[in-house]
Structures are given as C-alpha cells and as structure tokens.
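Protein modeling request. Please complete all fields; requests missing the sequence field cannot be processed.
Requester role: graduate student
Desired output: 3D structure, token encoding
Chains: 1
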Amino acid sequence: MQIQLDPLTVRRLGESLNGRPGFLKLFYDTEDCGCNGVLVIQIVDSPNATDIVFQNEPYTFLCDRQQESLFDSSMTLAAEENYPSYKLTSPSGLFSSNLRVKDLRLAVEG
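Delivered output (110 residues):
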C-alpha cells in the first residue's frame, strides 16, 4: 500500500505529531460505534504485534494486517483546508471524507 500526501497534509500530520516520535496507523475503530467501524488515523508510540508498516516517508504509516484488505494499494490522504479532518480516497472510491486523528501516545512527563 502507498499513500500520496500533498504539502498541506504533510504539514498538518506533522503538527499532530507535535515534534514527538510516533507512528500513523490507519484503523477502523469499532469500539462503541454500533457499526462496521469508523476510519481514524491513530498516532501510536509503537506498532502492535499484528501491525505492518506499509510506508516510511515522510511519516511511518501502519495498519493491522487483519484490516489491510480493507484498503487499496494506492490511496490519497488530503487535509481539509478549513476543517481539522482529512479525506482518504483511491482510484476506486472514497474511504472517508471526515477522517480524524486520534493521539494514543503516552503523555510526556514534564
């Protein structure tokens, strides 16, 4: 899999990482949603045992190998200009037009 990012998306994802290390994980979150899942970008400290790295530049992207089949081989992630969300598309269709970032990293002690 591969995700194309435009300059605005690269900048916004960098702002979400906030200068701290982290992995960006595409994940269908099914907890408490009562549906097939809501697509989110999770920021995690490290991959789970079932996660695969599918892209390393400009950020490291992961997905759970059990969810890999839900995505296409080539996708585009685009930040919304005036809204704190993203759109994930591929040549075959739209995955989400309201994709949010959820930071799950441990808090920094200071």
